[in-house]
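User: Run a structure prediction on this.
Assistant: Running it now.
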Amino acid sequence: MTTSSSDSHLTHAGRAADVGSRHDRGAERDVRLTVMAALPALSSLQHAALEIYGRLEPDRALVWTVEELGELAQAVRRHEDRTRLEEELGQLTAWMLCLANILDVDLAAAVESAIQEEIERQLAKYGKLKPYSCGSVPR
């Protein structure tokens, strides 16, 4: 049987797509493994935050968390320097750890679930991981 050049091109394209698909599955596996490896550190941070901050009233902690989020939003909108962004992100993260302790939420499990859901959403929509892309980020 003879094949036309278009048949040969389709076969080559199919092989290339299969290789790309294997690469995408490898990237997905790597991301999942990275997330799983990081979760124990997040649990340790949550336990350390409990030792440092204790458990405040939920309303007070929520107000402080929202305040930190507002300060971060302001710093981003004003294009403030990296040091300021790191400070606000750090403070917001610390208050998120506190809230998780106050509300008896396993933050590592919650983050794992959120990331797994996003992986599944991207795979269902694009057939691969497709991170968002936007403009420049202050360095």
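Residues 1-19 have pLDDT under 50 and may be disordered.
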